[in-house]
Specification:
The complex is a heterodimer of chains A (306) and B (149). Chain A has 306 residues and is mainly alpha-helical. Chain A folds into two domains: 27-174; 188-295, Cytochrome Bc1 Complex, Chain D, domain 2 (Orthogonal Bundle). Chain A contains 13 helices and five strands. In chain A, strands 1-2-3 form a three-stranded antiparallel beta sheet, with no helix packed on it. In chain A, α5 (100-109) crosses α7 (132-142), α9 (188-198) packs across α13 (283-295) and α11 packs across α12 (271-278). By secondary structure, chain B is mostly helical. Chain B has a single domain, classed as Up-down Bundle (Four Helix Bundle (Hemerythrin (Met), subunit A)). Chain B is built from seven helices and no strands. The radius of gyration of chain B is 20 Å and the shape is elongated. Classes of the chains: A mainly alpha (306), B mainly alpha (149). Chains A and B meet through β5 and α12 of A and α2 and α7 of B.
Amino acid sequence: MHRFIKLTFSLLILGGAGFGLLSAPTRLDAAKLAATTPGDVNRGQNIFWQGGCASCHAASGATGDAKLVLSGGEELATPFGTFVTPNISPSKQGIGDWSLADFANAMTHGVSPDGRHYYPAFPYTSYARMQLQDVADLYAFMKTLPPSDNVAGPHKLSFPFTVRRGLGLWKRLYLSDQPVVTIANATDAIKRGQYLVEGPGHCGECHTPRNAIGGLDKTLWLAGAKAPEGKGVVPNITGGEGGIDSWSAQDIAYSLESGFTPDFDSLGGSMAKVVQNTAHLQSSDRDAIAAYLKAIPAHPNGYPAQ
Amino acid sequence: MKRLIAFSIAPLLAIAVLSTPASADAIADRQALMKDQGKAIGSIAPIAKGEKPFDAATVMTALKKLNDDAQKLDVATLFPAGSDKGDTTASPKIWEDNAGFVAAVAKYKADTAAAVAADPKDLESFKTAFSQVTKNCGTCHEGFRIKKN
């Protein structure tokens, strides 16, 4: 019996140590960050619209310049609980005191300046694929935005999702800076589209189904999924059955500019807000996204029939 | 014999027709109205895109059609309580926040009427009117529609 207790005790300690090591936050290589040039505000503005920051961090219903006030406080109701988006404006309550390294670690490693894991409701799992220069430019642009002193409330989660440290293990499974799909003979436009869609645009976060612990099922990349919030679905945007094979590349690019589908229905739900971002993109970038979507593997719908 | 069958089937048919819930009609009606507006938009979007030359008559016909359709959007008739059930993508939010929905529809009606009144005579003024009207599509579909397939 003594031996059993000893064994259990050692296993607990070993397990605890293992968990501690495996769940520890990782950080960006400082040398890589030092290799970037000072952020360019104008380039950063483009990246701001590519990343869709305003969709979750500006007040709901904000239009025009109000979309640039990133006061947070939006509630995202998900199967894991309700996440409240933080203030990311350049203020004391936001990211005003953050260094570029703080910002880049948050964006690409999902780690806060004080070393806590962020929940992946913040799509760093996609932003991890961003070029560091783009992150630096975005940082420079965000520093120019209006400050807000709003204090966003805490997330409303239940156990075990309250244990942030556990996210370290989750990240080992699902956080990667590698491309999602491999496209043979990709043109420059397709490569650019791949960067935008898989990186800053974070399209896969909603358009790809997730497993029980919230990891993306990349075998059904962009095949559509149950809506992360509430009812309904996020559509299949591959060329598979139920998807958008009948849309031409021009149709896709125009939908991202105007919000209209080829039969002049309008994109709705959370995509309506996305279009408010993509409408600001350079038209060559919308064309690139379209070229990529026409080139990815086709899948049937990634969600069960409703 | 045929007549006998006809006689016995007729009442059944009548029952089938009469028992179709009113909400199914409302769903079909509003969907037809939405499709019609999509068609009108589709007839002038290529002009806004710059794919077709500006033509004042074409634009006016489409704007009038849009406005006529918009004014037919009577929330109480087309979105009766309970018509979130069935073959529809209407969000329950239409009834949970009915005042908000009515206000959104009223804004759309006002914007289409203003576009007709503006009577655009050149591409730039048309684009302004077009954008003013079509902003409503996304705003309403963002909150009041649920995509199901």
